[in-house]
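Lab meeting, item 3. Inverse folding demo.
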């Protein structure tokens, strides 16, 4: 049976960052990924200031910025009237080296991180079961159609919302799912030519539902914009959302968006790993509403 200090399950951004951090500290790490290659699906596209600060340690922040699109402001808008409140991240310049958001596809970050990786990375390896003892974790995996057991002191589960590790440990995933249908699309359509005053990131309310417009980095001579259309029976009004945003710069998300955990073999504790957690208390407290254009 092969033995490692730490095994990380899931080679997404969180798993890659964990493996990088540990290997650079001299820890013997094995990173496992169920797929045959890094995921290139259209997923997250925004990097916030604390995440950009954190990624500097791994030498990839400058590349993220170079391949991405700097977005210093974002908006909450009413459609079609165009009334809007704009949030200016430059107010955080005393608390971060990157007082802006960067729009860059998540898969690009994964590619950057894997080039820095010095530990082993096994693709096509699925976690099947986990057993914990007093001083070790035994992980059953399937690799190349054959089952194999691995042993480690610590196991990090970064394998997403349907975590095989969490399921094997019978750990619940309590929360609620918003009663919404979400459509995600990428298009070259120039929304800014039809919606005056758009920022790089826009959360919009319309009579028929809510939608978001997020500009992505240029592709050739065209611009790519990510759109999300939502429709829900229960929605907060734009003014209610603005009031909430004004009170705090932190946002509440559906519980099911929390997807990261760490299992320690000696204490069996569950620790949430948040990529890009706010590094400054002042950043967590500061309200970043700069101006509102309500009639």
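The presenter then showed the designed sequence:
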């Amino acid at each position: 049976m092969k033995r490692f200090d730490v095994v990380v399950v899931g080679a997404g951004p969180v798993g890659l960052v964990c493996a990088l951090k540990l290997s650079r500290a001299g820890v013997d790490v094995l990173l496992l990924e169920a797929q045959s290659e890094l995921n290139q699906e259209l997923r997250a596209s925004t990097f916030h200031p604390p995440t950009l600060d954190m990624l500097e340690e791994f030498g990839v922040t400058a590349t993220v910025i170079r391949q991405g699109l700097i977005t210093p402001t974002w908006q909450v808008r009413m459609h079609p009237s165009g009334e809007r409140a704009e949030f200016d991240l430059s107010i955080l310049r005393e608390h971060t080296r990157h007082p802006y958001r960067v729009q860059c596809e998540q898969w690009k970050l994964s590619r950057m991180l894997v080039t820095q990786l010095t530990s082993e990375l096994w693709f096509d390896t699925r976690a099947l079961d986990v057993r914990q003892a007093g001083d070790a974790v035994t992980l059953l995996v399937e690799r190349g159609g054959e089952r194999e057991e691995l042993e480690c002191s610590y196991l990090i589960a970064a394998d997403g919302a349907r975590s095989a590790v969490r399921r094997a440990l019978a750990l619940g995933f309590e929360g609620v799912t918003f009663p919404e249908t979400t459509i995600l699309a990428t298009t070259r359509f120039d929304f800014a030519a039809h919606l005056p005053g758009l920022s790089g990131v826009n959360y919009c309310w319309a009579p028929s539902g809510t939608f978001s417009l997020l500009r992505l980095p240029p592709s050739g001579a065209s611009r790519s914009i990510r759109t999300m259309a939502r429709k829900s029976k229960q929605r907060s009004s734009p003014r209610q959302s603005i009031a909430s945003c004004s009170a705090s710069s932190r946002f509440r998300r559906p519980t099911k968006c929390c997807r990261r955990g760490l299992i320690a073999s000696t204490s069996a504790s569950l620790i949430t790993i948040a990529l890009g957690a706010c590094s400054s208390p002042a950043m967590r407290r500061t309200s970043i509403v700069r101006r509102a254009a309500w009639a």
